[in-house]
C-alpha cells in the first residue's frame, strides 16, 4: 500500500485542508504485506472522523492500512474539524465533503468514478456524516456505514450537548428538526428505488445506543436496505471501532462493483 499525506487548498473552505489517502500498490517483497493491483482504478472509501479527531486518527488508532492491503480499495480520510459535516455560515464543510472533495480526489489520484465503487463510512460524528452523504446523495454512494453514529442530532441539540456546540453548527433545535441536516427527515425523503446499502453498528453500553435503536427502527420502517448489528458491553472507544472497521470492509459490496 501507498500512503499519501496531502495538504491542498479548498475553495469551499477558503483555507488549506488536509487528508490522508491509502492507495493500492502491487508489492511482493515487503514482509507480511503482499498485495496486487487491478487494471481498473480501485474503488474508493471516504472514511470520516469523529468530533475530537482529525484526518490522522484512523491511521493512528486502527490498522486500517493493513486491513485494506489485499483489497482493490483506496481510502480517503479528510479533516473537517468539529463541523458535523455541515455548512456553518461561511465555513462550507458540507459543500467541501459532498462536492469539492470527491472532485479533488479524482483529479489527484487514480480512483474509480463509478458510484457503484464509491463508499463512505465514519464513526460517531463521522457516522452521522456518512449517513448524511448516503441519504442525501444515493446516486453517488453504493454503501454507507455508521460506527456508533451520532444519528439523532435533533435530540442532542435539544439536550444542549455542550461538547458538540450544536447551536453554533445547526442553529436552534426547532430549525434543525425537519431540515436537510436531520437524518430522520432525510430517511423520509429517500427514494424507494435506491440501491444504496447502509450498515449500522453500536455497542449496547454506548451513550448513543438508544439513538441508534431509534434510527434503526425508522430506517427499517421506511424500507432502507439496512444491516444493523449491536454488540453487548461495547462502548464508545477505539477498541470497538478497530474491530468494526474490519467488519465494514467485509460488508462493502466490492464484489458487486
Automatic annotation (TrEMBL):
This is Esterase family protein. The lineage of its organism: Bacteria, Pseudomonadati, Kiritimatiellota, Tichowtungiia, Tichowtungiales. It holds the Pfam family Esterase. GO terms for molecular function: acyltransferase activity, transferring groups other than amino-acyl groups. InterPro entries: AB_hydrolase_fold, Esterase-like, Mycobacterial_A85_antigen.
